């Protein structure tokens, strides 16, 4: 009799494990997708930051010393895997605090390169935004004017 009782309890436990898995599986899938989206968001924000830094470095140095034709091209070289391409804004100011409104370099001034891109999540879950605007900026001091002899 005890042998029959152990077999019945074993079968009941297998059914309970299946029900637990059915209840927990959607939550685990949600966490997996959120983790993947967060990793993508982090990757793309770093890509935007690197592009802004490359553009600011080019714009703050002597144009013509590099293989790029413009600071815009130097910044967009990092964005080969972003579709559509991010918006790149390059502005100059005489002060580190801004305002960055000038479109032409100011000797001994500062340059600010801002990159903006809209990130879209893989799936749409309630409470999780499906689109997020990422914006990264980099400021650098413009190099002094190179003397020509």
Key traits:
3 strands, 3-stranded antiparallel β-sheet, alpha+beta, 149 residues
Brief account:
This protein is 44% helix and 19% strand.
Rg result: 27 Å
Runs with pLDDT <50, length 5+?
none
Distance between the termini: 107 Å
Which overall shape is indicated by the principal axes computed on the Cα atoms?
rod-shaped
What does this structure look like?
The termini are far apart. The protein has two helices and three strands. The chain has one domain (2-141). The chain has helices at residues 2-60, 71-76; strands at residues 87-93, 110-120, 131-141. The protein has 149 residues and is an alpha+beta fold. It has a three-stranded antiparallel β-sheet.
What's the arrangement of secondary structure elements?
Layout: H1 2-60, H2 71-76, E1 87-93, E2 110-120, E3 131-141
């Amino acid at each position: 009799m005890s042998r029959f009782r152990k077999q019945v309890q074993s079968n009941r436990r297998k059914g309970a494990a299946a029900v637990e898995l059915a209840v927990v599986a959607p939550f685990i899938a949600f966490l997996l997708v959120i983790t993947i989206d967060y990793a993508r968001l982090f990757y793309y924000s770093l890509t935007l930051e690197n592009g802004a830094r490359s553009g600011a470095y080019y714009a703050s140095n002597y144009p013509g010393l590099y293989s790029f034709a413009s600071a815009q091209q130097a910044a967009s070289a990092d964005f080969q895997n972003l579709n559509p391409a991010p918006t790149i804004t390059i502005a100059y100011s005489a002060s580190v605090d801004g305002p960055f409104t000038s479109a032409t370099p100011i000797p001994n001034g500062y340059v600010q390169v801002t990159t903006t891109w809209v990130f879209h999540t893989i799936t749409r879950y309630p409470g999780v935004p499906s689109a997020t605007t990422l914006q990264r900026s980099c400021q650098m001091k413009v190099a002094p004017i190179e003397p020509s002899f």
